[in-house]
Amino acid sequence: MEEEGEGAKPAQRQLVVWRGDQAPVQHDIPGPGDLRDDTKTGRLLIGSLMRAQLGLSLLCLMLALTVTVSFPLIAALVPSVGRMTVAGLPVTLIVLGVAFYPVFLAIGWFYHRQARQLEARFTDLVDPPARRPAGPMTRQPDDEAR
Amino acid sequence: MTGSAVGAIAFVTLLTIVVGARGIRVARTPDDFMVAARQVPPALNAAAISGEYLSAASFLGIAGLIVSQGLGSLWYSVGYTAGYLVLLLLVAAPLRRFGAYTIPDFADGRLESRGLRQVATALVLVIGWFYLLPQMKGAGITLQYVLGTPYWIGVVTLGVVVSVNIAMGGMKGITFVQCFQYWLKLCAIGIPALVLLIATGHDPGRNLQPGRAPVFTRATVIQVPQAIDFTLTRPTTATVSGLVDQRQYRGQAVPLCACRHIAGAGTQLGFAAGAPVPTSLAMAPSPGLSWDSPLSAAGTDGAHPLLATYGIIIATFFGAVGLPHILVRFYTNPDGEAARRTTLIVVLLLSTFYLFPTVLAVLARLHAPQLYLASDSDDVILALPSLLLPGLAGALLAALVAAGAFAAFLSTSSGLLVSVAGALSHDFMKGGVTSFRWCAVAAGAVATAASLLIGHFSLALLVGWAFAIAASSFCPLLVLGIWWRQLTRAGAAAGIVVGGGACLAAIVATMSGAATRGWGAVLLGQPAIWTVPLAFSVMIVTSLLTQRTLPGHVGQVMLRMHLPEALKSWP
Fold first, then answer.
1. Chain A contacts of B211, Cβ < 8 Å?
2. pLDDT tens-digit readout, A44-72
3. DSSP 8-state secondary structure symbol assigned to residue A88
4. Are B309 and B76 a contacting pair, CB within 8 Å?
5. Scanning every residue of chain A, which has its alpha carbon at the shortest distance from the alpha carbon of B74?
6. I need a labelling partner for B408 at 20 to 30 A (CA). Which of A73, B69, B112, B288 fits?
7. Per-residue pLDDT reduced to its tens digit, A95-114
8. Is the pLDDT of residue B469 over 70?
9. Nearest-CA distance from A20 to chain B in Å?
10. Phi and psi of B133, rounded to 5°?
């Protein structure tokens, strides 16, 4: 895409093969403008971000559901699992009362980090820091590190 | 006991009113809210969300259900927490970026339809009222336990306090009040749990052994407060003073068979150590499930427990997303990123809180088996401290628990009533402050009247049902609305009406006792297992059939929800 942008400069003498009232050719590099104006490129861009985000969310959701749903299933299929005790406490108490919570927190933390990185990468793709004008729009350098 | 508990409850109520009254203005428009709290830091906001979220069910209901039905009831606390994980994964950031203030606002803004907005508002009323019922019931039994007043007094007291407080304009927009409520509730359940745990010592006694009915760990004399039916798992001999099975005894040893008995009010029953624990009807476990089973048969009478457990999981995991009173709190996050951080902290705060009802329930099972003779499983946490720790210390802890419970009823029912009254006055009346006030009073009156009828359902079960309705209506609306371009008005409306309606019908059928065994009991008692997939399918299929009515601005709306803030700074 970058090369196309370079080639957009009109040559000195050239045969006109298309007229202005025909479909406009997008010479610009995709950028925030495409998103704002809801162009085809913009729609592709936001669509790719949404797909990536949804994929991440569904992955984490499946992980959480698999972990939780499998425990009662195992206990129903193999009743002896449900009757185990650990240090005198029923295994159900340990799993349902305590163990699931750190799992949820870990999944949530992982998702939070990944989602932020996805957004940072998307921002850099659409609006690369090199092309960004200095000023209030410029993000702080530690944004991604955080 | 009575004096300190009444004092503590009155203190919590007054404090809530006074702190809330500082926000006299009715903060109903987004702008009011923005002025009040647009830049709330995530930690504070998360505590406020948790404070509003932890209701009667979390405080009293779950522990009571664990004691009576078994450890499978822990799925409720697991699910109430996981609900926020699902919220984080699927809706938190986009919803904040969208900037909707209520769910009807979201429906209206995403799909541009007044009609859909009114459907959503109607559902807000259904879920809000349904969720208010257990709060009122909680207040009823708490005052009944503490003061010995009839059930309706507590219900009416909470109804009046909350309605009047909200009609006067207090309680809302004040993130600080709800934040305070979280820490109050955490202390009110955490301190008693830790103190009692230390006082009783670590002793995983016989009552935690798998597959055993509870027994008395030491010789115990029980005074029956009111006439009660009870059963025994095996025959035993008890020392009886008073009326048992219509015969009067004076301290005689009476052989009791493993069958049903009736004890009169004021009767004293003495049991030796190792004797089986008498169990009242309200505390009777589900047939066929041992106490330590990871399956729950709450609301379904022991039929198909695996399916019933999955019903609870689906309802609670996906219900939190669709609760009408929570969304508004996300509006006070500065941006989508902060909304995510807030939600993650909520998961942490809820995880911490839910450790303690479990501790109390296990202590009750271990050391206070006489609680199995209670007339309502939701009393258990209130009664436990004075049973395990006689004297002043126990009375103070009991007062703390009662105050925390009341804080739970107050905060959740206030949040709910504001949502219900706001929806009523904004979408069905002409709006404005006066209309909002009358709606608050009217909605409070309806909830109060209805809660007088639902006395015998467990708090956790009732709240679980409110979650099931939310999961079968608003959850698909929000999830598909955020992630799926092709959602149409007709699809959204059909999904909400069919899913929410089917779920509500199933629950009403269960409450009226339509099916008590077999498949019917499971499918009606834990309806989320089929109504959530139904709502999603109806919404998707109807949308695909009505693609021509796709709103024109969907591209812009999708951008607004999904674009990172860093890219939104164009002029």
1. 83
2. 888 889 999 999 999 999 999 999 999 99
3. T
4. no
5. A96
6. B69
7. 999 999 999 999 999 999 99
8. yes
9. 27
10. -55, -55
How far apart (Å, rounded) are the C-alpha atoms in residues B559 and B556? 5
d(CA B323, CA B126): 11
The per-residue b/e assignment along B24-38, b for 16 or more CB within 10 angstroms, e otherwise, is eebbbebeebeebbe
- How, if at all, do strands B220-223 and B247-256 pair? unpaired
What tens digit of pLDDT does each residue of B362-387 get? 888 888 887 887 777 788 888 888 88
**Is B343 in contact with A53 (Cβ distance < 8 A)?**
no
CA A92 to chain centre: 36
Range in B8-12, B300-304, B317-321, B511-515 the model is least confident about = B300-304
Rounded Cα distance, B434 and B432, in Å = 6
Does residue A146 have a pLDDT over 50? no
Distance, in Å, from the CA atom of B499 to the CA atom of B476, rounded to the nearest integer, reads: 9
Buried b or exposed e, range B383-412, using 16+ CB within 10 angstroms: bbbbbbbeeeebbbbbbbbbbbbbbbbbbb
SS3 state at B567: helix
Q: Which residues contact A39 (CB under 8 A, 6 or more apart)?
A: A26
Q: Which residue, B284, B248, B243, B256, is CA-closest to B375? A: B284
Q: Is beta strand B279-280 parallel, antiparallel or unpaired with respect to A85-86?
A: unpaired
d(CA B185, CA B188): 5
CB contact under 8 A, B483 and A50: yes
Contact call for residues B73 and A59 (beta carbons, < 8 A): no
Residue type, B16: T
| Two structure tokens written together for B375 | 């007339």
- Crossing angle of the two packed helices B392-423 and B433-451, in degrees rounded to 10: 130
Rounded to whole angstroms, the Cα distance separating A71 from B293 reads 11
Q: Is residue B65 within 8 Å of residue B73, measured between CB atoms? A: yes
| The residue to which tokens 């009358």 are assigned | B438
Q: Which of A108-112, B38-42, B157-161, B472-476 has the lowest mean pLDDT?
A: B38-42
pTM: 0.86
CA distance B124 to B330: 17
Q: Which residues of chain B are within 8 Å of residue A36 when distances are taken between CB atoms? A: 559, 570
